[in-house]
Amino acid sequence: MKSRVESLVRELGRPGRLLLFLLLRSPYEACATILLASFLAGALSGVESGSHKALFASLAWFSIAVPGLYLYNGTVWATHAPFWISRIAALRRRLFRRVLALRATDIDARPTGDWSARLTSDVSLIDSIPLHYLAVHVVGLVVSTGILVRIDGFLALIVILTALPAILAGQVLAKPVRALSGALRTAVSDQVAELVTLVEGGPTARLYDASEWLIHRFCFGNRAIRRVRMRLALLMGLQAVGSLLVGMGGTLVVLSIGALMVLDGRRTLGGLVALLHYRLGVVAGASMVVNCLLSIRIAMAGADRVMEVLDGGKST
Amino acid sequence: MNAIEFHGVSFSYRDETILRDTTLAIPQGARIGLVGPSGCGKSTLLKLVAGLYAPDSGTLAVLGETDTERLHRHVAMVLQPPLLFPASIRDNITCGHDMPEERILAACEAAQLSGWLRGLPDGLDTYVGERGNRLSGGQSQRICIARAIARQSPILLMDEATSALDVPTGAAVMGALRSLMKGKTVVSATHDLARLEGFDRILQFREGRLHEIPS
Prior knowledge:
The complex is a heterodimer of chains A (316) and B (215). With 316 residues, chain A is mainly alpha-helical.
């Protein structure tokens, strides 16, 4: 998949600018996790020790840092959005130009719906490709894991072990998800052709009392789409439920051990809350990375169809 | 009873008056030609008869039927360009209705499709492609004619049925149309007078009104 994403980034143009955006955007989640965890640790320690000064210092720092972080993230977004929109528009323009340059036999080889889907929904899939979310969550995951290891190596190991099944499940599901996404793209394209027929052939259908027949054909296509979407939803649902169960199990284990440590006086309550927050950074980060990879695979099903046209049929 | 009767029918389309207070009676079995330049309203008149459009005022009766929703039951229509569904030749002829095989084959024979069909590996079950793009214009038009024949309607409406075809294809399609027209009331719209040879009456569209011209 890496090489296909690379070719897509090359095709979008100005990869340096995209890389800069990803770099600027990537620290957001890690910073937010650290910010919240430090605030909770500091504030709760202040409460525990009865120190007003420590509590107010934490509150003051939090109230300055959070808007600052949001402002930074918003500025990065605002400067990136026009760039990304213009890249997608340029891609669509190139794609349209390429389609216009095709021979009539090449055009006739595919249904109208297929061309229509490639020019519209497939490009929209590329538009929504979550590369920046992946960057954000990868950095967040790495930073949270690193901090957690530094705080308590043993607990970090337990957290990582409970997060691993979600990652492995994501990898197992990746292939069928990609295949189903491709099948869904084809089914949708076929239905667009049926829809064009329904509209163009409406008067003829009415003359020959064929409307019910056309609707039946449309419903048949609808059923095909529904079947694929149900399978896709089932896979994604299984992944979500699995992640949730594993996550809850992990929380229970870490909370039990951490609570015992607090009772034994080996850890403060604020420290435990911060630890739980970093644990959340690891588990949620791992889950988000898996989801982003799955979403990228789904988007690549559309990207592949766009690239196929741009490459003149060289890639698949 | 006349096959088609217009009593003071007026019809406007997109703020343009197409028919003005038109009264016309077409007897059963008559062959009527409609001529006039593109956009003068020939197709609109046919669509009114087929019940695809409803008159703004006046009465339109097809074999005594005046309900616009039911007019299409009495007519078959051949249009240009031919519209085929992305389905088999059989489905394009039957339009999804149950139809005896003999009736389909007879319609194909009359539309001069039989010879070509015999050469196809899948015969009537051959997929025609999207908008019939796997077929020539003449083949597509003849399938539409076969559809109209299989319909067995007493009234046939033809809208530029051969105008876009080359001479040999047009001749073949005309042959098919002659079979289709046998014993039916025919209204044929064309911009070419030469295609109306043998018709009983020829009407010309002028400023929203019909004027008879010598046939």
